[in-house]
Amino acid sequence: FKDEVAKLNPDEQPLREVDLRRFVQRLDEALLATVVAVNRLTPTIIEVVAHAPAAAAKFEPGQFYRVQNPEAFAPRVESTVLAPEGLALTGAWVDKDQGLVSLIALEMGASSRLLQRCRPGDPLVVMGVTGAPTHIPKNGRVLMVGGGLGNAVLFSIGKALRAAGNQVLYFAGYKKPIDVFKLDDIEAAADVVVWAVDPGPNVEAIAPRRAQDKTFVGNVVQAMVAYAEGQLGEVTLPLNSMDEVIVIGSDLMMAAVKRARKEVLAPYLKPEHIAIGSINSPMQCMMKGVCAQCLCKHVDPVTGEESFVYSCYNQDQPLDAVDFPNLRARLRQNTVQE
């Protein structure tokens, strides 16, 4: 705000009423968010594109936002106000020049399903960005593993990794082929993509669109084993050349990758690789150390010492330290309400 005042009043003269009005107008333009579009990506995932210049300007890959509609403008059905709780939503992409933010939501409970009722021009509360930017190494090799909605987080991370000179191998996992969305963004985020879809009746493999990409029917751990063993064709980016692993998805998927790195994947990975998980804890205020709803339990894999971290302060956490059974219990605490 000091910078804005300085632009309007470089000589530090008493501010006139007209200058104050201009100042307030500029703040409104930067801070008041509105809905631009609502796009259905899959039967259970929607994208809300918002005009939120200040929120867009500060975004870095991996961060997220707290989003809800203002109660005063929320639609009503009889005596029920359709105002959702604050939702922690992925920032899939931003256009800083246009002040646009893409917010991706998985429709799980009532609050997330209410987002589909947003209409262009509706006011929106977009708080943030929050969380910490994902660490982007330089000139290395990074393995990204995404599951379902977690793939939306990896769009911006993968692009930033490649821009920093890294080679990126990306395993994108889905329950069904119909769950795949924004293929262009996924391909732009990686040098090689391995598409994986869970097996089931009449399930077909996801068809790659690029010559270097692979496809597999099975979960992402099985896909990684098959890739490492050469079952999917020529391997241009070996698993054992990866310096870092970034895993984003459901708690069960991330826990499975954590275990597999010490078991079936151990022969195919560098012993000294770094493994990070983006932890989707329950969240409420998302103000970094206030309500403690997002506390995540860590257990040191060497000493067994327990500690706790605020996930809304830093969502990227050492995969081996996260207590996934505790996280799963925390995530289920709102099941009845949802």
Which class of secondary structure composition applies to the elements? alpha/beta
Mean pLDDT: 92
Strand content: 25-35%
Strand order of the largest sheet: 12-11-10-9-13-14-17
**Shape label:** globular
Low-confidence stretches: none
What Rg, in angstroms, do the CA atoms define? 22 Å
What's the tally of helices?
9
Give the total of beta strands: 17
How would you spell out the order of helices and strands?
A: HHEEHEEEEEHEEHEHEEHEHEEEEH
Distance between the termini: 40 Å
Main sheet makeup: 7 strands, mixed
> What is the share of helical residues?
10-25%
In short:
The chain is α/β, with parallel strands linked by helices. It contains 9 helices and 17 strands.
Characterization of this structure:
With 338 residues, this protein is α/β, with parallel strands linked by helices. The chain is built from nine helices and 17 strands. It has helices at residues 2-8, 17-31, 53-57, 110-114, 150-163, 183-188, 220-228, 251-262, 324-331; strands at residues 33-42, 45-51, 64-68, 76-77, 80-81, 87-95, 100-106, 123-130, 141-147, 167-174, 192-197, 214-217, 244-248, 274-278, 295-299, 306-310, 316-318. The strands form four sheets. It has a seven-stranded mixed beta sheet, with helices on both faces. A six-stranded antiparallel barrel has the order 1-2-7-6-3-8. A hairpin with a 6-residue loop joins strand 15 (295-299) and strand 16. The longest helix has 15 residues, at 17-31. The two termini are 40 Å apart.
